[in-house]
Design a protein that fits this description.
The chain has 18 helices and 2 strands. With about 400 residues, it is an all-alpha fold.
């Protein structure tokens, strides 16, 4: 196994790069519907709430699916799981071509498209196993930048669609197929990686009994959940409220996502120097303040743009610092299971806001209430992170009896 002083090997960097590319592509696939949701809305005569539900369904499935995906990765390894999930994601991507004229079938395919959102739980244990503790935070931060697939989708999907309404799905399907083949050759599991012998239910039950699991989940649901929510709903918001075209809205949404990608590793880097609970509190405090600004519907240029981009920076920083916090307040033997639950909850945090925003707009004709609710949540997270999370430490450092190691067969 890796030690504190060990330097990462060439295999470690190869796996990091390959996993990050795969994470980026599958996240693009996961977010394919959001940048062109308004196109579906015009084509099918959908209400704002119906559009919100359409973009939220993949988020729900991709989030919940991280729990079994992570458990299966622990058992079978990322060498199998990454190519397999990438290949299976091709199916719903291509089905979007077939079901584009049926709202009901689009919801079903959106459910299947959620599979693309599960690769976060595959890449984290892979990268974690290859890098020593001293290098792990930066490596995980680099892998986390794969969520920039949402930015790629926001920018490229509507532009590619201008050259053919089915073209984005064909391009992404081909990219996923090529990646699945490459990943089968390039991804390798560390030979001596720990492999669980207990059942999934036993491991998750043990993690779920920790109070800190749910505290971290709540904070990550605000940070990363906010990123996901904005990623899937921002194009619709910009088109509906600021009357932007689909391409322009997708471009600005991509800029928002890009800022979150850049600030996620910054959040981790700051947490190496300042307590991650303090970093989280400051980041969420900034989000709370700027959400209030946006609730007053400032003009998009420059007020709205500045408010949204600063919120993106705060959410990105918080999503990075919360995972740095996991390692400080979670018993070492349970970090993996806790991470699975926290990651799933973070994604689920992005499921409800688009529905709420759509419902509020349909009922009130304004998004102000939605932004004030975001401000309230962010402020609550800020206070809790500062007041509670700074002082707690792992309460159980006993070894996990349900883990064993696979004998090393190669280097």
């Amino acid at each position: 196994m890796t030690t504190e002083t060990e330097s990462p090997t060439a295999a470690a960097y190869r796996n990091l790069v390959t996993a990050t590319i795969g994470f980026t592509l599958t996240f693009w696939a996961w977010d394919l519907i959001a940048p062109i949701a308004s196109w579906y809305g015009d084509r099918l005569g959908l209400s704002s709430f119906q559009q919100s539900l359409l973009v939220a369904v993949p988020v729900l499935v991709g989030s919940v699916g991280r729990i079994p995906a992570g458990a299966l990765t622990d058992k079978y390894g990322a060498k199998l799981m990454f190519p397999l999930v990438s290949a299976l994601t091709i199916v719903p991507v291509l089905l979007l071509v077939v079901v584009k004229d049926s709202y009901g079938l689009l919801l079903v395919v959106g459910f299947l498209l959620g599979l693309g959102g599960t690769t976060f739980a595959i890449g984290i244990p892979l990268v974690n196993s290859w890098f020593p503790p001293a290098k792990r935070g930066l490596a995980l931060g680099v892998f986390g930048m794969g969520m920039g697939g949402v930015a790629l989708s926001g920018y490229f999907t509507p532009r590619i669609a201008e050259h053919g309404e089915n073209l984005p799905f064909l391009v992404v399907a081909i990219a996923l197929a090529a990646y699945a083949v490459l990943a089968a050759f390039l991804i390798t599991d560390r030979p001596d990686r720990p492999v669980p012998t207990a059942s999934l239910a036993a491991r998750l039950g043990s993690a779920a009994r920790l109070r800190v699991t749910w505290e971290l989940s709540a904070l990550y649901a605000i940070g990363f959940g906010g990123i996901v929510a904005f990623g899937v709903y921002l194009p619709t918001y910009l088109k509906t409220w600021y009357e932007l075209g689909p391409t322009d809205a997708g471009t600005k949404a991509a800029g928002f996502a890009l800022v979150t990608v850049v600030f996620r590793p910054i959040g981790g880097w700051l947490s190496d120097r300042v307590h991650p609970a303090l970093v989280t509190a400051v980041a969420l405090g900034v989000v709370a303040l700027l959400a209030i600004v946006q609730a007053f519907d400032p003009p998009l240029n420059p007020g709205g743009t500045i408010a949204l981009l600063v919120m993106a920076a705060g959410l990105g920083t918080a999503s990075g610092s919360v995972f740095a916090l996991v390692s400080q307040v979670t018993p070492q033997a349970k970090v993996g299971s806790v991470t699975g639950i926290v990651g799933a909850t973070g994604g689920l945090g992005g499921f409800l806001p688009p529905l709420v925003m759509g419902a509020i707009y349909s009922a009130k004709g304004s998004y102000s209430i939605g932004f004030m609710l975001l401000s309230d949540l962010a402020l609550a997270g800020c206070v809790y992170a500062y007041g509670r999370m700074r002082g707690i430490r792992p309460d159980d450092e006993t070894p996990d009896p349900h883990r064993t190691k696979v004998p090393a067969t190669s280097s």
